[in-house]
Every structure is written in C-alpha cells, then in structure tokens.
Amino acid sequence: MIDPDFLAVAEPALPERHAATVRVVERFDLDIISEDLLRPEPQQVGTSAHGRPILQDCWGVRYEYAQDGLHYCEYLVPEPDAAEAFHFPSAAIYSAANLTRYKQATDRSIWSIVGGAFDNLLPLIGFDNVMFWSIEAPQALAILAERAVRFNADLAELSAQAGADVILVADDIAYNSGTFISPRIMREVFFPQFTWLVAEIKRRTNLPVFMHTDGNLNAVLDDIVACGFDGLQSLQPSAGMDIRAIKQRYGARLCLMGNLDLDYLLPHGTPEEIEAHVRALARDVAPGGGWILSTCNTLSRMVPVANAAAMYRAIDG
User: Please, what are the domains in the chain?
Assistant: First the structure.
C-alpha cells in the first residue's frame, strides 16, 4: 500500500494522483494498488476561537486542524442515549471513480479500503468514550458498531461494482501491548459485527476480505480468524507480532501481509540491511504461499526511495 505522502504530490487532483500512483507502482513493479473510496469534500462551516477553519465532513463531523493534528469540535453522539438516533450517510454519496480508473489503466490487483466496526466510532464519540462506554454502556457501542458495518458493507459493494479485486477492512483495534479494549468486550461487542461484515461482503461480492490493524493482536488472533477474514495486513514486528509463529499456526487459514518494520528498518536502515532482512523473511514465510510482501503499514514518505527499492529488489533479485 502506498501512503499518499509517498507520491510527493501535495493535495493532487484525481488525475494527477492517479498518474503519480501509477508511476510509483511501475517504478517498483508493485502488484497491488489500494485506495479509499472518494467522499465529498468537507465544507467550512465556521471559524474556531483560534482563527482556524471549522470543517464539516459528509458524516456531519466537525473538526479543525491544529499544529498537533486534527481536533474534533463536538461529537455527534455525545451520550450513550444518543446512539439510537445516529445513522451513517448513504454510501451513494461516495464515488469509486478512482478504482475504476486504476482498473482500466493497469493490470494490477485493485484493493478497496473500507472501514469496520471499531475505528468508525472514534469521530462519532471520541476515543475516551469508546473506552468508558465499553464498560458503562456496551449496548450503545453495539448499536453504533452494527450501523458502521452495514454502512461499510454498502461501500464494499460499491467497490466491487467498480472493479475492486479485494476488500481491505482497515480498522485499528490495538496498540503495541494489546487491544485498545479488553478481548472480552471485543468478543461481546465488536467481533460479532466483524463476522457479519465479512460474511455480508462475501455474499454480495464474492471477493476476498482482508483485515488491516496495527498493534499486538496475539490475544485475539483466534477471533480474527474466526471472523472469516482471508488475510491479515500489518503484523507489526515492534508490537510483538512474530510472523514466523503466526504462519506456522494460521498459515493454512490466513494469508499474511506485511511485517516489514517501519520503526527502524525501512526508514533508518541501510539498503543492504533491508535486502538481507527481506530475503530471510521470504525464506522463512514464503514457502507454501500465503505471504504478501509489504511494510507493516503503508509505504510512506519516511521511507527513503532507495530503501523502498531495496525492499522490492530483494524479492525480484
């Protein structure tokens, strides 16, 4: 996957971004192009007390950009009792024109990125409230998670109609030491929704469904497999994800994608270190298939071009 920053095109229009992406794909002979669907541009609806524009997105979420990142101005679901009244917008306001463009212009595998059951709740209620409600009001989280997966199933169907080959459910559920909320609450509230989402996407599209999540997933790998995902992307080595052990245990049921370190190796290592690491990884996990070469997140600007080239050269060579 290619982070837009890697393209070195600032806020490109769609044709310019498409051309830049194709250049990167051809430069490194990548097999996969992964893209989010296009959503309506946010509209300015006011000015903050700090003089910054207040923007509103197509979900109705209002936010501003500060030096330290994005700040939500208010939450659409401020209390658990408000969960029942919230509905996601229609998927019809999204566009898959970018997927169609890549499908027509290249012979690469086109992966469409949609959301899942967890991440989509953060702009609606805030990260802290997800933590609090998981204990105090899990039923409110369940309502929102169910509506999130139904919305994302619609986006997946739209993607398939545009020519997507794979659906990637991008939903970070963990940090470096474990899941954000307890595995027990994940099993009660969120994994049932992931299970429904995967089955529904496959029913509507007959496409493979991968999951992306960073972090330490060791306590819930059995659950992720049980959800029906065909593959798992990230496998963050700095979060204790041992891809060799995971391949041995789950390789017959789960395609593994990633595990190349973005903390040190790719941004700061030498090309020689990277080539040696990739060759050793391929030697151990490629036999029998079921592994896709990838960073543990995206190919971002912090990865020098020479290091990205070394990563792919190690396989091609």
Answer: 4-40+76-316 (3.20.20.210)
d(CA 294, CA 17): 21
Strands 53-56 and 255-258: unpaired
- Helix (H) or strand (E) run with residue 61 in it: none
Residues of the chain with pLDDT under 70: 1-14, 317
Query: CA-CA distance, 45 to 55, in Å (whole number)?
Result: 6
Q: Report the distance separating Cα 204 and Cα 201, nearest Å.
A: 5
d(CA 235, CA 228): 17
- pTM: predicted TM-score of the whole model, two decimal places: 0.94
Q: What is the CA radius of gyration of the chain?
A: 20
* Whole-angstrom distance, CA of residue 10 vs CA of residue 1: 18
- What pLDDT was estimated at residue 7? 38
Q: What is the pLDDT of residue 1?
A: 52
User: Can you tell me the distance from the alpha carbon of 189 to that of 125, in angstroms, rounded to the nearest whole number?
Assistant: 16
- Burial (0-12, 13-18, 19+ Cβ within 10 Å), 221: middle
Residue 251 token pair: 């390789």
Whole-Å CA distances, 121 to 52, 65, 87, 125? 25, 20, 12, 6
| CA dist., res. 179 & res. 171, Å (int) | 12
